[in-house]
Here is the input.
Amino acid sequence: MQTTLTIKQKTIKQNELKKGDILLFSVVKGDLESEIIGLLTNAPVSHTAMLYDDTHIVEETPPSATINNLAERIKDRDIYVMRLKNSEDLSSVIDIADGYVKENLPYASNALPFIGLYMIGKRFIFTDKKQKLYCKLLEYALATLIDINNHKKYGGKTPMMCSQFAYHCYKKSGHKNKIDVNSDMSGTILSTIKKCDANTMLQNMPPKERYTMPSQSEINKLLKDFCDELKNNDKNPQALNDTLLSDELILKTYEFITCFVEVFAQNNNSNGIFDKLEELHEYFISPSDLLYNTTNLEFKGMLEH
Here is the structure.
């Protein structure tokens, strides 16, 4: 695995880019969602796009999959360029992305449920304070999922996040283009939840009606508090101590997973909730995974611009 330091020593010119190259955008300082994604995934990147042609990129960004001007989108961002090893022509990948643009495939515009997914699927240190913030964030995420489900906000279409979009387009274009992502989740909250008794958790789950949509100011305050606590790890040696997960955290995580599957699973053929979640594995893929955690993507350099 390359470190950020060694990565930044390599550059690539814009005229050396190839159609289908994956472009990973640096974290935006001051953007809470961007910073939290970077902190949770331990990476300097928080957004993913693909090169559409010499001067454009294709990406999932609000409100839907779209084609944007490359020069305008990369202003004030560091761009990490990844390329599929031994690839020659990735036109089929871009053709699939283009199809999603034409059908206005929606972007999963509310980030709270997906921050929740990153939390349960990544390894990071839990302080007592962080557990309380995590539980509150899951409450907000649950309210968001319930609101999405009740109002059918995506009109029957399945929304995607930016990294998931790139991964999905590669996978759909054929087995030879599928990106191999390491899916090891040992040591994560999800791996702990799987060991718990599902029947007990189901019996203790509260009614969904108790969750109401928070205001934007409430969301912003929570995100800021959570972001500050994530940054606190390096400043507070006590944060490095292992802590037991609270019953509240375990129950809310299971409730969140159940609701997420209900909203985003396209079929209900699987037996258990975790089997259904496994079918949604694409949603767990982050920009960090595409930078650090694949076997067949090659880092080509920091884009000169």
